[in-house]
Design goal:
Blueprint (H helix, E strand, L loop, with lengths): L14 H11 L4 H10 L11 E5 L17 E6 L6 E6 L4 E5 L14 E6 L5 E7 L9 E6 L8 E6 L3 E6 L8 E4 L15 E6 L5 E5 L3 E5 L5 E6 L13 E6 L5 E6 L9 E7 L10 E6 L10 E6 L5 E5 L4 E5 L5 E6 L6 E7 L2 E6 L12 E6 L7 E5 L22
Antiparallel strand pairs: 1-26, 2-25, 3-4, 4-5, 5-6, 7-8, 8-9, 9-10, 11-12, 12-13, 13-14, 15-16, 16-17, 17-18, 19-20, 20-21, 21-22, 23-24, 24-25
C-alpha cells in the first residue's frame, strides 16, 4: 500500500464556529479542539436476498458531447431546499440524491425534514420524497443503495445518520419511507452521537455493510438484522465522537471493503483509507492501511468523505478540505487530483459513463443555495458495477433487473 502524497491548494476555514460547537458540546475535547484550531480545519468532521445481480450504474444519456478533458466539470442538476446534497445513486433512468441540512458541525438545525430527490438523465427534478427527522435535528441523510428487483418491487435503501436504514418503494411515485433496520440496544437511541450510520453498500451475498464513525463497521443481513462487524481504535476520528469511518465501497475483486476516515486520531490531521477482507469475523490483524492523505501546515486537513471505484481498480476519493477529488491506483498510490471552482464540500460520488457525479454538501457557516448542485466530472474511465441484490422472484420487466445495465450508456 502507498505512502502519503501531498494535496494541493485549499480554501479558508471557519475557526470561530468550531470554538462555539465544542464549547456547547460539554465534551472533554479541549486538547483536540486546540489541535484542530492549529490545523485551520474546515467545518466538517463527520459528518432479503435470495439471489444477486451485479448492477452497474448506467451512463446517463446526454444531448451534448462532453469535453474530453480529464477534470472537465459542469452542473448536472440543481436542488431546491433543503439543499446540502450528500448521497447519490444512479438507476436505469433516475439519479437519486439525499440531503443533510441538519448538521452539528455547521450549526444547522433542521425541523423541516430531509429529502430524497429523483432527477432524470438530463438533471431535471422529477420527484421529491420528504423523510421526517426529529425537531431541531442536527444530522441528516447520507448513503444510498439500490436493489436489483424489477420495477414493481424495486427499492432504494437510505442511510439516516441518526441510526436508521429506510427503504423507498420505487414502484410508487410518492413512496412512504419504511424502516428497514436500526442498531440493537443499547445503540438504538436514534442519536448520531451513539450510532452514526453514514454510507452503505451491498456485498455479493446481498448483505449491507455500513460505516459508523463511533468508530465501528456494521453488517446488516437481508432481513434487516444489524450487528457490529468490526471495531478497532485505529478507526477513531480526531474528535472521538466524530471524524471516523465515512465513505465505503467494495473493490473489484469483491473481497475487500474499502472505507475512508475523515480526520484520523491516530494520524493527526490526516485522512486515511483502510480496507478489510469480507470475512465473517475480521480480526485486528486483517485491517490494512491503503493510503494516508497528509495534513500540511497552514492548509485545511484533507478530510476524505465519499469514495467510488472505477472498473480499472482506481479509487476516487472526495476531499472536502481542499475541495478536490483524489484518484488512487490499485496499489494505493495517488496518481491525480481533480479541482474545480464548482466544488463545494464534494461528498457523494457515483459513476455514469466515463464521468463521475459529485454532490456538493455545502458545509459552511453561511449556506450557499447557489451551490446546491450535483456536478458531472469527466474522468475518462468507467465505474465498477455495484452489487444489487434481487429479492423478488418476479420476471424482469425492464432494465432494473437485467444485471449489468446497458441502457442510457453514452460514449463518454
Amino acid at each position: 500500500m502507498s505512502k502519503s502524497s501531498a494535496p494541493g491548494g485549499v480554501r479558508p476555514s471557519g475557526r470561530a464556529m468550531i470554538t462555539r460547537i465544542l464549547g456547547r458540546s460539554g465534551l472533554d475535547v479541549v486538547g483536540v479542539h486546540r489541535l484542530l484550531w492549529s490545523w485551520g480545519i474546515r467545518l466538517v468532521l463527520p459528518v432479503a436476498a435470495s439471489a444477486l445481480l451485479l448492477g452497474l450504474s448506467p451512463a446517463l444519456a446526454s444531448k451534448q458531447d462532453e469535453d474530453q478533458t480529464i477534470g472537465n466539470t459542469a452542473v448536472f442538476a440543481t436542488a431546491p431546499f433543503p439543499g446540502h446534497l450528500f448521497g447519490v445513486a444512479i438507476d436505469a433512468d433516475r439519479v437519486y440524491v439525499s440531503t443533510a441540512r441538519g448538521d452539528f458541525f455547521a450549526q444547522q438545525l433542521n425541523s423541516a425534514g430531509e429529502r430524497v430527490f429523483a432527477f432524470d438523465d438530463e438533471g431535471k427534478l422529477l420527484t421529491t420524497t420528504t423523510i421526517e427527522t426529529k425537531p431541531n435535528s442536527d444530522m441528516g441523510l447520507f448513503g444510498l443503495a439500490l436493489d436489483g428487483n424489477p420495477r414493481r418491487t424495486h427499492k432504494l435503501y437510505v442511510a439516516d445518520m441518526n441510526g436508521r436504514i429506510l427503504t423507498l418503494d420505487l414502484s410508487q411515485k410518492h413512496p412512504t419511507p419504511e424502516l428497514f433496520a436500526t442498531p440493537p440496544a443499547p445503540l438504538n437511541t436514534g442519536d448520531w452521537r451513539t450510532t452514526m450510520w453514514n454510507d452503505l453498500v451491498f456485498d455479493r451475498a446481498g448483505k449491507l455493510f455500513m460505516t459508523d464513525d463511533k468508530p465501528r463497521l456494521w453488517r446488516v443481513t437481508p432481513d434487516g438484522t444489524a450487528s457490529v462487524w468490526f471495531q478497532d481504535s485505529r478507526l477513531l476520528g480526531a474528535l472521538g465522537f466524530a471524524g471516523g469511518p465515512l465513505g465505503g465501497r467494495i473493490d473489484p475483486t469483491g473481497k475487500f471493503l474499502y472505507f475512508s476516515i475523515t480526520v484520523s486520531a491516530g494520524f493527526p490531521g490526516e485522512a486515511v483509507i483502510y480496507r478489510l477482507p469480507l470475512v465473517d469475523h475480521p480480526s485486528a490483524s486483517d485491517l490494512q492501511l491503503v493510503h494516508r492523505f497528509p495534513a500540511v501546515a497552514g492548509e485545511a486537513p484533507p478530510q476524505a468523505t465519499g469514495i467510488a471505484f472505477a472498473k480499472s481498480g482506481n479509487l476516487y476519493v472526495a476531499l472536502i478540505g481542499p475541495n478536490q477529488i483524489a484518484i488512487l491506483d490499485p496499489a494505493g498510490n495517488e496518481i491525480r487530483r481533480i479541482s474545480s471552482p464548482l466544488f463545494d464540500s464534494p461528498w457523494g460520488l457515483a459513476f455514469t459513463g466515463r464521468s463521475l457525479l459529485v454532490t456538493n454538501a455545502d458545509i459552511q457557516p453561511v449556506e450557499s443555495p447557489g451551490r446546491w448542485n450535483v456536478l458531472k466530472v469527466f474522468v475518462g474511465e468507467r465505474g465498477l458495477a455495484l452489487n444489487r441484490p434481487k429479492t423478488s422472484s418476479e420476471k424482469d420487466d425492464d432494465l432494473i433487473g437485467s444485471g449489468l445495465f446497458s441502457g442510457f450508456d453514452d460514449t463518454n
